[in-house]
Amino acid sequence: QVQLVESGGGLVQPGGSLRLSCGASGMILSLYLMGWYRQAPGKQRELVSTITSGGSTDYADSVKGRFTISRDNTRNTVYLQMNSLKPEDTAVYYCNARHRIFNQDVDWGQGTQVTVSS
Q1: For each of the chain's 118 residues, which pLDDT tens digit applies?
Q2: Kind of pairing between the strands at 57-59 and 46-51
Q3: With contact defined as beta carbons under 8 Å apart, do 41 and 103 qualify?
Q4: Is 82 in contact with 49 (CB distance < 8 Å)?
Q5: How far apart are CA 72 and CA 51, in angstroms?
Q6: 1, burial (CB in 10 Å: exposed 0-12, middle 13-18, buried 19+)
Q7: How far is CA 15 from CA 53, 82, 98, in A?
C-alpha cells in the first residue's frame, strides 16, 4: 500500500527552525516528483517546494532563501528544512508524490502541524 507519512512539525518561536520529514512506503521514491504543500486555517492549500528525481528544486517566493527541500531515495524520505520561520509559515504541511511518467498523484498523508508563535 502506497503511503506518505509526514512528521517533524511543532511549535517554534519566530526565527526558529524545524525539519520536516516525509516517509514514503509501498513505492520507489526515485520514480516520483516530490513536493511539500501547506494549508493555513481558512486558506487554500499552496505549493511550498518541489524536488525532481534528479534533485532539481523549486520554491515559492515566500520561502526562498529560508526553506530547503532534499530527498534521500535510499531511505525513501523527503525533507524540508525550514529556517528563519515566521508566523505566516503557520500551517499544516503535507508532502505530495507525483509519478514522473504516469503523472499520477499518491494520496495525501495526514500532514504535520507547524505553529510559529512567541
Answers
A1: 889 999 999 999 999 999 999 999 999 999 999 999 999 999 999 999 999 999 999 999 999 999 999 999 999 999 999 999 999 999 999 999 999 999 999 988 899 999 999 9
A2: antiparallel
A3: no
A4: no
A5: 11
A6: exposed
A7: 31, 10, 32
Burial of 25 (0-12, 13-18, 19+ CB in 10 A): exposed
Dist CA 33 CA 28 (whole Å): 11
What's the burial of 94, exposed, middle or buried (CB within 10 Å: 0-12/13-18/19+)? buried
Cell of residue 62, nine digits: 515566500
> Grid coordinates representing 21?
520529514
pLDDT at 43: 96
Cα–Cα distance measured from residue 103 to residue 29, given in angstroms and rounded to the nearest whole number: 14
Rounded Cα distance between 43 and 100, Å, is: 28
Name the β-bridge partners of 96: 35
